[in-house]
Amino acid sequence: MESKDDGSGLRCLVTGATGYIGGRLVPELLEAGHRVRCVARTPDKLRDYPWAAEAEIVKGDVTDAESVRAAMRDIDVAYYLVHALTSGSGFERTDREAARIFGEQARASGVRRIVYLGGLTPADVPERDLSPHLRSRAEVGRILLESGVPTTALRAAVIIGSGSASFEMLRYLTERLPVMVTPSWVSTRIQPIAVRDVLRYLVGSAHMPPEVNRAFDIGGPDVMTYRDMMQKYAEVANLRHRLILPVPMLSPGLSSHWVGLVTPVPASIARPLAESLRYEVVCHEHDIAHHVPDGPGQPFSFATALSLALQRIREARVTTRWSSASTPGIPSDPLPTDPDWAGGSLYTDVRELDVDASPDDLWQVIEGIGGDNGWYSFPLAWAVRGWMDRLIGGVGLRRGRRDAQHLRVGDSLDFWRVEEIEPGRLLRLRAEMRLPGLAWLEMHAEQREDGRSHYRQRAVFHPYGLLGHAYWWSVSPFHAVVFGGMARNIAQAATRKTAGAGA
Question: Record's PANTHER family (predicted)?
Fold first, then answer.
C-alpha cells in the first residue's frame, strides 16, 4: 500500500473477512474512502465477493507471527474480528495466543489503532465464572488493550441482522414453535443491537484520537428479555402471539441441542450463544457516542432491526451469513486432484449423461441446487441424512443457501460448502456433515458439438481408517438411487427449462 499522505484515506487491515461481520465491514470501509487489506487463511474464499477487486487480499493466519507481520506492513488501523471458537476445545488457548501475536506485531509495525469486536459481559460476574465463550472474548480484549497500541474494544450482546446466528436462532424458534417449552434464559435481560449500528461503530472507531485506549459497550435502545424478543419478532413478522413456558432444568448443553434441532444453527454454535444468554448483558455506558456520534433514529430500535433483517431476506439481499465462517468439526482439506493420489484410498462414484438442454440452462440448474430447490433425488433420504447429522452435532440440511440463484466460493449450502466454482462449467462442494472421512461432490456442465450439453457428476470419498471404509461400502448400494437419481433429475430439469424457453 502507498503512503496515506496521498489523501486516499486510512490503510485498514481486516481479519475475519470471510466471516459474518468482516464480510460486511470491508465494503463499509471502502465506501468511507479507506483502503483495505484482508488477511485470510484461504484467500480464494474471498475472490467472488462483490468488493474483492477493490481490496487487497493476502494469505495469512493470526496464529502465525510471520504472516501477521507481513499483513501489518504500512497499516494504520487493524481490525481484529476473528474468534477461535470453531477450533475445538482448546479455543481459549488459541484465542489468547492469536491476540498476543496480533498485538505484538501491530506494535512492532507502527499500527496506529486496533479495533476489536468482542462480547458484552455482565458487570457483577467474575470473569472466571463466565462461560468459556464470553471469558475468552473478554481476555482477548484485555490482551489487545495492553498491547501498547491504542485499542478500541467494542462489546456487543446479541447482534440482529439478516444472516446472523443470533437472528437465525430467534427467527426459527419463533416461526416454528407457536407453543414452546424453553430454557430459563428466556427471562434474562439483554440489550440487542442492529448489525448496521455495529458496522457504523466499527468504521467510526478508525478515527479515534490516540489517547483513547478502552472498551465501549454498544447496544440498541431496547433492553428486553429473550421472551420479549421472540414476542416482538412474532409481532413484526405478523405471527400470532407465542406461548412460551420456561423450564429451569434445561441446561445450556441440553438447550443447545434443542436449538440445534429446531433451527439451522448447529449445537456447536448454539451452545456458546445459549451460555452467553444465561447472564444479564446490558450496557452500562454509551460513551462510544462521544467519538462516533449517533444520527437521528440511531442506534436502531429492536423492531427496526428486525424489519430491516426481514426485508433483506425477502429481497434475497443477505450479503453474509453466520455460516460464512467455518463450523466446528468440519473438514477443510482440499480435494486431492491427482487421480492416482498417493495419500490413501479414494472412492468415487461417477455419473455422466448427454442432456438435451443448452449449457446455460444446465448450469442454472446446477448452481441452483440445494436449499428450497432440494437435491433432485430421493428427498426422504436426504432429509433423514440431515436429521442424523443434527442428532450427532453436525450442521444438518437446514443451513440452506445465502442466495437462491447464485453461489460463490466459501458459501455454505445445506451440509456442503462451495469449495470451487467455475461459472458455467464446474461446481465443487465439500461435505461438512459428520463423516468418518472427507467427501466432495462435483458437477460439470460441458457443451457438446451440437450445441447441447453433457453432464458429469462425481462423488469422492477419502475414508478415515476402517470405519471410513465400512461407511463407504455400507452406503454404496444406495448410490444408484441417490446419485443416479440426482444426475437424471438434474438433466430432466435442464431439459424442461430449455424446452420451456423455446415454447
Answer: NADH DEHYDROGENASE [UBIQUINONE] 1 ALPHA SUBCOMPLEX SUBUNIT 9, MITOCHONDRIAL, NADH-UBIQUINONE OXIDOREDUCTASE 39 KDA SUBUNIT-RELATED
The pTM for the full model equals 0.74
Q: How far apart are CA 424 and CA 17, in angstroms?
A: 26
Q: Say which amino acid occupies 55.
A: A
Closest residue by Cα to residue 344 from 468, 435, 483: 468
Q: What one-letter code names the amino acid at 296?
A: P
Residues with Cβ within 8 Å of residue 120, at least 6 apart in sequence = 155, 156, 157, 191, 217, 218, 219, 281, 282, 283
Question: Would you tell me how many other CB atoms lie within 10 Å of the CB of residue 283?
Answer: 19
Determine how many CB atoms are found less than 10 A away from the CB of residue 417: 25
**R_g (Cα) of the chain, nearest Å:** 24
Cell of 87: 477450533
**In which element (H, E) is residue 339 found?**
none
Summarised one tens digit per residue, pLDDT across range 415-462 is: 888 988 989 999 999 888 888 888 899 999 999 888 889 999 999 898
| CB contact set of 417 (below 8 Å; sequence gap of 6+) | 330, 410, 411, 429, 430, 432
C-alpha to C-alpha distance for 210 and 75, rounded to whole angstroms: 15
The answer to whether the beta carbons of residues 337 and 233 sit under 8 Å apart is no
Question: For 80-137, how does the pLDDT look when each residue is reduced to its tens digit (9 = 90+)?
Answer: 998 865 545 577 888 999 999 999 999 999 999 999 999 888 877 887 888 788 888 8
